[in-house]
Amino acid sequence: MRVALVQQKYCKDRADMVADTTRQIEEASQHGAELVVLQELHQTEYFCQTEDVKFFEYADNYENDIAYWSSVAKQNSVVLVTSLFERRAAGLYHNTAVVFDSDGSMAGKYRKMHIPDDPGFYEKFYFTPGDIGFEPIDTSVGRLGVLICWDQWYPEAARIMTLKGAEILIYPTAIGWFESDSQSEKERQLDSWITIQRSHAIANAVPLISCNRVGFEADSSGVMEGVEFWGHSFICGAQGEMLSQAHTDETILYADIDHSRTKEVRDIWPFLRDRRVDEYSCLLRRYCD
């Protein structure tokens, strides 16, 4: 199966961003992609750098967004993983990945479960934690374990998706550093980000797609220095082997994924067989003291 991810910089406004993303999906389809993954909150700038109620307006078009990306998936005959700002009700919003099958039907959605609250990443102000669990989404190209950004630091999320039959892990992402960070700190952050996700692929013997934003985005409030999204999106196989990796430019990244590799790897590395499920009760507690 040929898969693609779209690594982008934010354009000048939402309309241009949507138009550019649509062109990238069309190009990916023309190059044989059956599955296309977009970055976190791909329609707009990463507005969570500051807390401002005006940005809730970005969720007002959620139903129209659904209709639009459904049509794009259908027109290009691709399974499409989007990342949208969902307005569920007045005052109730989610960071939601919506997956469309190649016929344009909505295959399912995932609401981000782990919500960060750090300088420059004030997501708790905007998003309510997900409440529909870790449920893989069945599509014409397989069962997708879709998670979002901060979820990628939690092995429990990847494991639960795998135990429920996910055949591939997917992470739309928006992560970067501050210019004031030292070069060594930047290198440590990037290396940690790649390593933790490759470890999920290895521990669960499933391929993984991680799609990040790229480029500098200023803090609209002027309080923070802005975030340089570091890109480096990648696709790895069931043993964590790199199949394809981007750098810090805008790009469409492709890879061919062989689902049969999961069985081959699990036959030689039977991690699921040897789990001590009778001894993991401590995982259900905040801290085991």
From TrEMBL:
Keyword Hydrolase listed = yes
The record's listing under InterPro entries reads: Aliph_Amidase/BUP, C-N_Hydrolase, C-N_Hydrolase_sf
Cite the entry's keywords alphabetically.
Hydrolase
Q: Tell me the Gene Ontology biological-process terms attached to this UniProt entry.
A: putrescine biosynthetic process from arginine
Q: What is its EC number?
A: 3.5.1.53
Q: Check the record and name the PROSITE patterns matching this protein.
A: CN_HYDROLASE (PS50263)
- A Pfam entry, by short name: CN_hydrolase
Q: Report the GO molecular function annotations.
A: N-carbamoylputrescine amidase activity
Domain CN hydrolase, chain residue ranges per copy: 1-259
Record's protein name:
N-carbamoylputrescine amidase
List the taxonomic lineage: unclassified sequences, metagenomes, ecological metagenomes
